[in-house]
Amino acid sequence: MTGNIHEECGVAGIYGLKSDNAASLVYYGLFALQHRGQESCGIAVAGNSGDGQSPESPEGDRQITCWKAMGHVGDVFDSKTLSGLKGGRAIGHVRYSTTGNSVAENAQPLVAYFSKGSLAVAHNGNLTNTSELRKELEDEGAIFRTTVDSEIISYLTARYASESESVEEAVTKVMGRIRGGYALLVLCPDRLIAVRDPYGLKPLVMGEAGGATVFASESCAIEAMGGSLIRDIKPGEIVTVSADGISSIQTEPGRFSKCVFEYIYFARPDSVMDGISVYESRIRAGRLLARQHPVEADIVTGVPESGIDAALGYAEESGIPYVKAFVKNSYVGRTFIKPSQDQREQAVKIKLNPISSAVKGKRVIMTDDSIVRGTTIGNIVRMLRAAGATEVHVRISSPPFLHPCCYGTDVPSCDLLIACHHSIPEICSMIGADSLGYLDVKSLPDMLGEDGKYFCDACFTGDYPDSFVPEG
Amino acid sequence: MTGNIHEECGVAGIYGLKSDNAASLVYYGLFALQHRGQESCGIAVAGNSGDGQSPESPEGDRQITCWKAMGHVGDVFDSKTLSGLKGGRAIGHVRYSTTGNSVAENAQPLVAYFSKGSLAVAHNGNLTNTSELRKELEDEGAIFRTTVDSEIISYLTARYASESESVEEAVTKVMGRIRGGYALLVLCPDRLIAVRDPYGLKPLVMGEAGGATVFASESCAIEAMGGSLIRDIKPGEIVTVSADGISSIQTEPGRFSKCVFEYIYFARPDSVMDGISVYESRIRAGRLLARQHPVEADIVTGVPESGIDAALGYAEESGIPYVKAFVKNSYVGRTFIKPSQDQREQAVKIKLNPISSAVKGKRVIMTDDSIVRGTTIGNIVRMLRAAGATEVHVRISSPPFLHPCCYGTDVPSCDLLIACHHSIPEICSMIGADSLGYLDVKSLPDMLGEDGKYFCDACFTGDYPDSFVPEG
Amino acid sequence: MTGNIHEECGVAGIYGLKSDNAASLVYYGLFALQHRGQESCGIAVAGNSGDGQSPESPEGDRQITCWKAMGHVGDVFDSKTLSGLKGGRAIGHVRYSTTGNSVAENAQPLVAYFSKGSLAVAHNGNLTNTSELRKELEDEGAIFRTTVDSEIISYLTARYASESESVEEAVTKVMGRIRGGYALLVLCPDRLIAVRDPYGLKPLVMGEAGGATVFASESCAIEAMGGSLIRDIKPGEIVTVSADGISSIQTEPGRFSKCVFEYIYFARPDSVMDGISVYESRIRAGRLLARQHPVEADIVTGVPESGIDAALGYAEESGIPYVKAFVKNSYVGRTFIKPSQDQREQAVKIKLNPISSAVKGKRVIMTDDSIVRGTTIGNIVRMLRAAGATEVHVRISSPPFLHPCCYGTDVPSCDLLIACHHSIPEICSMIGADSLGYLDVKSLPDMLGEDGKYFCDACFTGDYPDSFVPEG
Amino acid sequence: MTGNIHEECGVAGIYGLKSDNAASLVYYGLFALQHRGQESCGIAVAGNSGDGQSPESPEGDRQITCWKAMGHVGDVFDSKTLSGLKGGRAIGHVRYSTTGNSVAENAQPLVAYFSKGSLAVAHNGNLTNTSELRKELEDEGAIFRTTVDSEIISYLTARYASESESVEEAVTKVMGRIRGGYALLVLCPDRLIAVRDPYGLKPLVMGEAGGATVFASESCAIEAMGGSLIRDIKPGEIVTVSADGISSIQTEPGRFSKCVFEYIYFARPDSVMDGISVYESRIRAGRLLARQHPVEADIVTGVPESGIDAALGYAEESGIPYVKAFVKNSYVGRTFIKPSQDQREQAVKIKLNPISSAVKGKRVIMTDDSIVRGTTIGNIVRMLRAAGATEVHVRISSPPFLHPCCYGTDVPSCDLLIACHHSIPEICSMIGADSLGYLDVKSLPDMLGEDGKYFCDACFTGDYPDSFVPEG
């Protein structure tokens, strides 16, 4: 229900499928990653056994074919486009829609043609030295088609590839130049390379499906491809799959700083990343909240979908029964005509209606994953009261948002973050709750089930792993 | 997850809105009823204060304007069509798609023009004397445009209206002729009439919204219209709202026989119908299952969405913790390209993936609302085991399906119902479960929280309230 | 370029195809009739050899399946819907869009179910006794779904069919009741009936295609079905095709009054109707204009498309060379965003641009089929002058419009017809022409190549063949 | 009716509009150029007075906003996208669809971001040194996103611009590198540059509209923008429009070699390019044909649309009357379901039906612009005979196609060109004509109205202006 924070991308890839259907498996993988990006999507394939019917199959050995467009996976691909994407290796990408830049040109994968051939790049993350790199490259004569940083990665990879013995070597050089968080899949006509930034800010997992090697932002995509998780790509690691098998290069890693917000909100609960079950960490967040912010109440509930797991953990720890208090209307989509100003109350009820009989006369503990501006949760608290709840105690399974993310998460700037300008009691009063408790930032290791800090919590603490100081 | 059983319709209506936006409120109501029918939908309005811009506004005082088409509410209506439907009173309808009859002509409301004016009918339910009525009427010269029974109701209403003092009188006569289950909304240029069959087989509630009187199949629609529930229409009752206020005619009721399956599966959990909270009844079903079919296990879970409430009740009663074991992918829609035969396993996983960390090494109790053919639940049991569950105990929050419904529910014929041909142990083995327990048919009153039998459970017992003997 | 006058419908039908593809042939026929109606279209089939996959195939022997919707033929039918319409006999319909009534419910064919079975009706034309018939039928208990007169025909046909020995007998009775212009195709499960009104106001031709018997509003549709024209249905004739072969009933005809405006504008030039080539009659109109309104000039041209044939005739007769003076942009369609008020001039030029080099410094004779309001032709005259024409002499291949049509042509009411309120010199000055000549109403027989008056020219003379006096 | 030969692009641009609606004018221009490319289209704007609502408006002074997609102009742009393209200068592009490369990424204009800013390029034409340039640039480190040569031009322009004093200087350098035919529009934030290749192979005209300076591939687009033609861009000329007014650089021109096929087929008849009216040249082609290939006949007709003008010229010269012999169905579009193999005959008739009454019993001379494979014209000849023509004499208003075009016209390779493998008598027999005459290649200057050879006729003669020897 966070509503205002978005992951910006998801990637999936496969190498070594015996059949020409690699695109089809990536298609299923992208469905499982759709929550990570709904603006545009695309699939690039290579290793086409070849009938020339593909949408874009350039001449010679530059065999990378790509189809991408604005829209959801289910809209962009139909059986015709999918069957035109023939090949035994493929990468795919889903991208999130930020306003102002919703143009087809920013869709990925990005294909690059250069002196030694071609490659396609799918990128999840954000660079922190974009403008300095861009300036430097442009001064050297680089020409870009877009203003997105993924093009810089694609450019550098192709440029170094044209000067290097191997694409792996090129990728190593690229990693020496770019800073920030990234999970990359690089498809070459003869190989697939998976790369994770030195801090491990962005997740990237490896698995096996249909006898082939697969990669994805989350393990749930591997399962959607019919496969199973093998391991995580390590921070700073470059994994290559080719006819020679799987090989790995380990570049100098930084302090392991996986994104804690993946566990709090972004990732699907059925994913396991860096050895930690997303579902389990959310349950633990709920348990910790129960210990840190106990309150006498009749029921515990969660805001669907992202608040429910923490509610289950809270209920378990506190012994207060978990109750489903809301029905979410899954039919409300893009074509929904919003009510006029005086019908706003209805709009909320249409999307998310409380179950009166579950909350009437009850003291309610309600969990959610985070508070950004406070408007949505305020509406939900009001609805619960209108439905008969006598008390509403809000518990947030993350610490207060105080700092922007510079690694590819769309956290609003400070002036829009309620916690930047208001104390917790103020927020409690603004959202109309009887009490408000955030997860203690010190308990994040407990939430993840770790005893040290191997994660990035810069959005809560301002402690950016690469010592980057954002301007915003 | 039942997948094979569908409600066939939902209705919503409003009378007495001061503004011309009645259609807009009904639109929100239909969104809340979309689960009751996804084939087609429509809205008819009257009381147009009049600018002649409506899609269909026939001459003179025959002022009923209607827009309907194949598709979901969000697709059929856009701001242009909606703003063309001007008027202070309106009825709307959502219809379910059965194969072979998915044509625009069957969409409702059905408008009828006759000697005394015009009216529009929205109907949820099914008549049991369709063919005899149809024959009789055709013998008398009636001509029909469709083969759906709603047209018979529309025809009879208009015919009697042309012979009667009032439409209410006509409706009373219609009720004397038709048998079966029905909830009707009849919109006349100057009034709105709500009718429920003498057995109360189909739900119909009345409420207040924006100073106007509203009706709907479920109370959740009233809430979506920004209103609140007042009461249920009684079996055999005819409620009229007009400039003269609200009046009621009580025709001879039958044995009160509300549909028990509305509580088990059809209705939205946030609805309250005939004084019973759907959510509460599902929780009670879970509790009863725990008492009737206890088993030693580590966790209780439910198949999303319809099996979750019973799981919560089972957990509460048994003391075994409730766990969320599945992630449902809400992006998988109509455009999803199904995998080829050898990728079937993936298709299931893409739509519904188990959370391994939640079930691994666990003895699992899994609830669902019903078993029709057994295929889907068999797949889910297999997935749970593959995800590491050591035992899977299936609990069904309804008795076994044994008989077709003749009141508007799309229960397959007996030869497709697994329980018609197999004993419970056989089914248990076919779906691969360690144990299987159905809700005892005798405990249905307990589930509803009533001490007598005031409901229809013919699909489980063959005890049809109007002594109807179906052929199928 | 007339722009303001529209035919309202076109019909096509086939009986006796050996294969199940009757719908496919009718589909091609409707493409050839698309100029007669662009609002909605539909096809009904019978004689399904039967696999139950059709969109609407009711039970038993009531085997009529229908698919219809708003839109052009190419949009309404795709290969899936078309292949679902299986059967060896079929009728189809295209309907024109009038504002205010553009709803799917008015699409044809209209299917009717009645005591003796079912039938489908496709109707081109307009009744002049609609309201009296409607009142009478409603008083007898008839209930209608729409306000279009085609439903009255469908209703009467079904009603009489239920009381008659045969549908042919029923159709004969219907003809005794309805007045006005009509071409009807009635599809029964076992036969196809083609009917033309007693005055022959609406065209209807019969032909042969693929071994089957076909009917259509125009012969061009028969050619599009791959067939050839046999003859016209005679005024008042009922032709039946069934397993027993082709039979004909001749009811009492009126004065033969085929619509002269079909030849002037509506029909496709490659059609031959009632023995008269549309193309030839337009060439003759041009020749007559040259004789009636000669003028010294350098070139003759016509407004595309409907004015070109008369220009060719004028050129031939006058000896002044024909020149193509305009390019019409066929890409300008429904999605074209019209320029704002101050860009109006461009809008005309985008759709129809003069060829300067063809007209520069020339005295131009320009033919068009008719003038309704005078706005469009005024714009075109201005464009010609701006392109360098030194004189523009307008010649209209029809007499001035003075009276509304009550037989199914959308002529605006008198207050919108420029000729009702202005003399020819006034009109000439209003449209900015150097001279203006209309075809003499007395020469219409010459235009048709007949020596008597066997046609309806009521829109020019007010002489309505059935002595009907329109109100408008 | 040529069917197999396509122009590949069209361009339009505007500089200096007082309002922000430059995109709107370019939109109308593109409608007029739609015949030059139907695959994709796009518009880029600059000089946004600025509200940040544009689809893609990158930061800072890099103010170029672009919207492009697959589809026709009417489909790609709606009022929302168009109103998002704010600015007083703009360029637009339409692109033709060749199979295999129909991807959004190839749509133009191509935007480039580089060290000194940004620019957008719209290109009509084809380079002959693409692979050598591409190799050289890639060896120097260039990275491309597509395999189309327009990207090479965009790349070079941006690269030289980053090293030059001005974009004009950069363009001059680009012209020194690229070979082949091109008409370019280069939009910079502060200027618009129009460039034509040294041979003048591709047309490019300049005009005035709404007080602004406009450029377009054809003059018809200037008229659609509401403006008027000023002059042609000269071979090798670079015209710049900026705040400083209009300036021109004349680079070294080659032998003037405008494409003769623009006059024969590509261009719209209402266009005037390089001082020659397209319509007039087609009329002259007809006259020349009449002199070169006279035959005794009753009527002259032309295959719509492209064969009609030559027919008028032939008729004029020969004194044999011109007759319209075909009706083209403008409703047959992309969604048309093609008949099955055994219904092929119908498919042709649906698109193009002969007017029997015009040709029956007649000896027909039929003109068309060219013959590529001969299949289509063979079908048309057969149709004419079936419609009653006693003789069919085919006259082609161009010489036989013998060589591929390497400047941007999609002439099939030699093995598909009927004239490469068959003598004229053989072709005559293959298409079933009574006689066949092509325009004499020596009379092309007469057709154009010139006394020397200032045009490219390489597709007929193999005489490539830049001495290029194509491989194909």
Question: What do you see in this structure?
Answer:
The structure is a homotetramer of 472-residue chains. Chain A is of the alpha+beta class. Chain A folds into 2 domains: 10-254, Glutamine Phosphoribosylpyrophosphate, subunit 1, domain 1 (4-Layer Sandwich), CATH 3.60.20.10; 276-461, Rossmann fold. Helices cover 30% and strands 25% of the residues of chain A. Chain A contains 17 helices and 23 strands. In chain A, the strands form 6 sheets. Chain A has a 7-stranded antiparallel beta sheet with strand order 3-2-4-1-10-9-11. In chain A, strand 15 (272-273) and strand 16 (276-277) form a beta hairpin. The first copy, chain A, starts with 8 loop residues before the first strand and ends in an 11-residue tail after the last helix. Chains in contact: A-B, A-D, B-C, C-D. At the A-B interface, helix 1, helix 2, helix 7, helix 10 and helix 11 of A face helix 1, helix 2, helix 7, helix 10 and helix 11 of B.
